[in-house]
Amino acid sequence: MKLLSVNVGKPRPNPWKGLSATGIDKRPVEGPVAVAAPGPKGTGAVGLAGDRVYDVKHHGGPDQAVYAYAREDLDGWEAELGRPLANGVFGENLTTAGLDVNGALIGERWRVGPDVVLEVSCPRIPCATFQGRLERDGWIGRFTEAALPGAYLRVIEPGDIRAGDPVDIVHRPDHEATVALVFRAVTREPGLLPRLPTVEALPEELRDLARRRTTA
Question: What is the pTM of this model?
Answer without folding.
Answer: 0.95
